[in-house]
């Protein structure tokens, strides 16, 4: 995989450094064009929310891309008992979120939209969602405060980064690890193959 995919320029509709690093891990270095639209949805179920938001981001960026571009849009959410936990922004809010996650399981959902920009600006693509169950060890109040105050969780959904200092509190996961980081690479690769093969058959 490279910056080109099946002869098409690849654009990532996200400014997330973690998604960029994941794609670089498998040899894909797309152009980074973050979406400018407001991220809002009327969906209430986490899986439907991330799919819609990934589609909104991808469509916004694709509308500004030339014919032949392949756009990847993504959105990740953490949910516990179907309550969505966003980015905390403050250590106090991070501590509140981690308290809800410690000692139990929660879910991480990533919605991904892949769009091909076709002649005339028409868009052809697919949207999917991947879910991973994450189990966290019980944590003491001191451990929660220390992690919440370290700065790492402030810009991360659910107030933690599985690839960072919080790794010591992860008991196990059921599903795709990369999905928790921000992009399910295995599923993404196979969906890309299917999409580009379908597009070639339509030519």
From TrEMBL:
Main location: cytoplasm
Active site: 75
Keyword Hydrolase annotated: yes
EC number in record: 3.6.1.9
Transmembrane feature ranges: none
Record localization: Cytoplasm
GO cellular component term, pick one: cytoplasm
GO molecular-function term, one example from the UniProt record: dTTP diphosphatase activity
Record site feature (Important for substrate specificity), residues: 18, 76, 163
Any Pfam family matching the protein: Maf
HAMAP family: Maf
Role: Nucleoside triphosphate pyrophosphatase that hydrolyzes dTTP and UTP. May have a dual role in cell division arrest and in preventing the incorporation of modified nucleotides into cellular nucleic acids.
Official protein name in the record: dTTP/UTP pyrophosphatase
Organism, scientific name: [Clostridium] asparagiforme DSM 15981
